[in-house]
Every structure is written in structure tokens, then in C-alpha cells.
Write a structure and sequence with these properties.
single chain; alpha/beta; 10 helices; 8 strands; 49% helix
Length: 320
């Protein structure tokens, strides 16, 4: 292992992006070559099916003397949150950055982060995407609604459009790694640990190759994990909705008694009964499903399975 003190660790989570990495990695290596510190680039292969190992080996000859290039290969796909956690765990730098391996996170912004974290004396510099013109109106609306729902201004604040592209000091990384949960919503964890944070705007570059792995289904699943692993608000809403429906039912029941006994009106039973049963049954199933999601999270946590499994590792500072 390299005995020299590492100043900067750059984490690249990768999933079937060998072609994009092949174009982006030489640019990143050229950037670290200009830094007056030892650096390491940690590539986390999240169960890719392409030739990412070959891409790693081809770029070894481009590696400058002040940079260590590492590749950690999972035994299967465990998800981006697990890949980010693995990168943070394996990082050795006093400063740690996370970037997308597809080239959409500009290296020029990383350079600004390095300057900003020292000149502003903050613990975290996070990049906030200024515009998402390439996304549909529906996608932007859903993301905005999600961030509004997840806010807890008394304890933390989730900054919209601030993702994993950030630079953190070692103490922040150590704090995040102290959080043991397996259902990891990284954007929430960044906010939960706190520390002084500076946000800088950026515009994402066009992907250098391939296409995004995220679609509406995967984004919905990520949002569901975030909500059920990071917020108890839906459970509180269930209780409140139940109390409101019970109150309405009591008031309606009193109205029926008075309307029938005092005014002698007949009660039209079947339509009202059928609609009431269908509504209450549907609502109960929704509530049970939501509660089931929370129980499922508990089930995953108590099993204490590892967040990821490593199949093989390559490190340019060690003899192969």
C-alpha cells in the first residue's frame, strides 16, 4: 500500500459504463497530475457486465506518479448507494470527492470545490444542478414534490438538486460511516450528519457514452427507500387520516339516526354501503402496504447482512 499521505480520494461508482469511463478517466488522471498532493481514484464496479477491468488496465499507463488507481469489483450489483458507501469506506484521503463515472460531473467544478473548501473554511462543498432542461416536466415536478415532502426544517434540510457530487473532509466521511443502516439514502445521510456546507451551482455535461440507468421505476424505488428509511411522516399521516375518517363516520352515523328516527326518512342503503366498503377497504390496503414497507426495512436491518460483497480488487500501488 502507498505509504505516502493521500490528500484527495475520488470515488467513481460504475455500472455498465466501461465506454464512458474509458473516455472520462484519462481526463481525470490528467487533472490529478496537476495537483500538488497525492491522490487516489477509486473505481467501484457495481456488478458490471462489460469490460471495466480492461478499461482499468488500459489507463494504468496514463497514471501520473502522484495518483493511485484502484478498482474494487462487487460480486454482483448492490446499487449505487452501496457503491458510494464502499468508496467512502475504502478512501484514504483527507479530502474525499464523489463523481459520476459517465463524465456528466465536470472536472472544472471539482477544481472549484478544492479551492472553495479551503478558502471558505467549510467541511463540505456540494454541487447543485442549476437546470434540468433535459428532463420532462413530470420528472421535475415529481422530484420537487419529493424534496418538499422529505424536508424537516427543525433538524436538517435536503437541498433540491444537490446530489452525490460533493467534496468532504475526512471527519465528515468518518461521520457518515458511523451510520450503520443498510437501507441507505445517501442524500438524507449527507443532510443528517450536518457540518458546514457550501453549495455551488453547476450545469451537468452531456454523457460521454451510453445512457442513464435511471428511469421512472428506479427513481420511484429510490424515493420509496428514501421515504421509508428516513421519514416517519407517512405513518403519522395514516394515524391522522384514520382519525379524520372515524370522525366523519361518527358524524354521519349521528346524522343517519336523526334523519331516520326524527324525520322518518328511509335510508338508501346499498349504494352508500357499497361505496363506503370499497373506499375503506382500498384505504386499509394502502395503509397496510405502507406499513409493510416499513416492516420490510426493519426485516432487512435485523438480518445484519453486509451492505456489499467484494469479489476482487486491483491497486496500482501494489504489485499485481
Amino acid at each position: 500500500m502507498n505509504a505516502q499521505k493521500i490528500g484527495l480520494s475520488i470515488i467513481l461508482p460504475i455500472y455498465n459504463d466501461a465506454k464512458a469511463v474509458g473516455q472520462f478517466l484519462p481526463q481525470l488522471l490528467a487533472f490529478t497530475a496537476q495537483l500538488a498532493m497525492q491522490s487516489e481514484i477509486i473505481m467501484i464496479d457495481d456488478g458490471s457486465k462489460d469490460n471495466i477491468v480492461e478499461t482499468y488496465q488500459q489507463n494504468l499507463m496514463l497514471k501520473p506518479s502522484n495518483t493511485t488507481l484502484r478498482l474494487i469489483q462487487f460480486s454482483r450489483n448492490f446499487g449505487k448507494e452501496a457503491a458510494l458507501t464502499a468508496g467512502l469506506t475504502e478512501s484514504r484521503g483527507e479530502l474525499v470527492s464523489m463523481m459520476d463515472a459517465d463524465g456528466q460531473h465536470p472536472i472544472a467544478i471539482l477544481a472549484q470545490m478544492l479551492t472553495a473548501i479551503e478558502s471558505n473554511n467549510v467541511d463540505v462543498v456540494a454541487a447543485v444542478q442549476e437546470s434540468r432542461e433535459n428532463e420532462s416536466t413530470l420528472a421535475r415536478l415529481l422530484k420537487k414534490s419529493f424534496y418538499c415532502f422529505m424536508q424537516d426544517t427543525h433538524r436538517y434540510h435536503l437541498t433540491p438538486n444537490a446530489g452525490d457530487f460533493r467534496l468532504m473532509r475526512r471527519k465528515v466521511v468518518d461521520a457518515i460511516l458511523q451510520l450503520p443502516e443498510r437501507q441507505r439514502f445517501m442524500k438524507g445521510l449527507y443532510a443528517w450528519v450536518g457540518f458546514s456546507t457550501l453549495f455551488i451551482p453547476f450545469q451537468a455535461d452531456i454523457r460521454q457514452a451510453g445512457k442513464s440507468k435511471f428511469n421512472y421505476i428506479s427513481l420511484f424505488e429510490l424515493a420509496l427507500v428514501g421515504i421509508t428509511s428516513f421519514s416517519q411522516r407517512p405513518l403519522r399521516w395514516i394515524s391522522r387520516i384514520g382519525m379524520i375518517i372515524s370522525l366523519i363516520a361518527i358524524i354521519y352515523g349521528i346524522y343517519i339516526v336523526f334523519d331516520t328516527l326524527i324525520f322518518g326518512k328511509d335510508l338508501a342503503g346499498w349504494p352508500t354501503l357499497a361505496a363506503g366498503i370499497m373506499f375503506s377497504t382500498g384505504l386499509q390496503l394502502i395503509c397496510l402496504g405502507l406499513i409493510g414497507e416499513y416492516i420490510g426495512r426493519i426485516y432487512e436491518e435485523v438480518k445484519q447482512r453486509p451492505l456489499y460483497l467484494i469479489n476482487q480488487e486491483w491497486d496500482s500501488s501494489e504489485p499485481q
